[in-house]
Amino acid sequence: MKLQQNQVWKKGAEFIRITRLERHEVAYKTMLDLETKEGEHHLLSKKEFCRLLHGAKLMESEAGGA
In Å, how far are 4, 15, 44, 52, 58 from 32, measured between CA atoms? Predict the structure, then answer.
């Protein structure tokens, strides 16, 4: 799995967006609605974040390929 900043993952009813990606930790935001972008910020080690994403689906980029 290749993590990148600003990726959005869907797990259940929750969306998870990577806000900052560093060598050993990941800052992310959890949201229930992508339109309002309201949610909570979290910080985990990269290993714990990968465990969190288990079973989640990567959402397609809105920009696409132009």
Answer: 21, 6, 19, 16, 15
Alpha-carbon span 28 to 1, nearest angstrom: 16
The residue written with tokens 């290749």 in the block is 2
State pLDDT tens for residues 6-25.
Answer: 999 999 999 999 999 999 99
Chain-centre distance of CA 53, in angstroms?
8
Helix (H) or strand (E) run with residue 47 in it: helix 46-52
Query: Could you tell me the pTM of the whole model?
Result: 0.85
Smallest Cα–Cα separation from 39: which of 60, 63, 55, 18?
18
Beta bridge partners of 29: 17, 41
> Per-residue pLDDT for 64 more than 50?
no
